[in-house]
Amino acid sequence: MTRAIHMLNGPNLNRLGKREPEIYGRTTLVEIEAMCRHAAGDDTIVFRQTNYEGQLVEWIHEATDQEVAGIVINPAGLTFSSIPLLDALKMFKGPVIELHISNIHRREPIYHRSLVSPVATAVIAGLGARGYPTAIRALREILDDAAAG
């Protein structure tokens, strides 16, 4: 059975490969999308990026209404500031994996307190671009375990 997984990306991630490569690496978001699609196997990936908080919230509402199997989300800077994002994720009933390219806990103190983590099933941080397919594989295993009972 094919499941839908939403991979949601927040502000500035469209600049991957160019933006602070010493922190975020040189892999582009287009390359990351290909990695995620490969890791998804038979599952369907809806891969999106926006620079706007409200759009990200709308996509979470859509995933909730469509009863999507799971969400992997890299909220980027909204991780640390968005109550609306937190509230939207609270409504989603499936597993949520919070993802960060860098290890947010090794960075400046402003990046240490995620507003998303309290509602996330799991958090992956610091694996660089390879964290994306790792998150997709982990989410698939969580979904498989839930289906097995």
TrEMBL record:
Pathway: Metabolic intermediate biosynthesis; chorismate biosynthesis; chorismate from D-erythrose 4-phosphate and phosphoenolpyruvate: step 3/7. The active site is at Y24, H100. Gene3D superfamilies: Dehydroquinase, class II. Substrate binds at N74, D87, I101, S102. It catalyses: 3-dehydroquinate = 3-dehydroshikimate + H2O. The keyword Transcription does not apply. One of its GO terms (molecular function) is 3-dehydroquinate dehydratase activity. One of its GO terms (biological process) is chorismate biosynthetic process. InterPro entries: DHquinase_II (IPR001874), DHquinase_II_CS (IPR018509), DHquinase_II_sf (IPR036441). Its EC number is 4.2.1.10. Keywords: Amino-acid biosynthesis, Aromatic amino acid biosynthesis, Lyase. It is an enzyme of class 4 (lyase). The keyword Lyase applies. The record marks R19 as: Transition state stabilizer. Catalyzes a trans-dehydration via an enolate intermediate. Belongs to the type-II 3-dehydroquinase family. HAMAP family: AroQ. Homododecamer. This is 3-dehydroquinate dehydratase. It comes from Falsiroseomonas bella. The gene is aroQ.
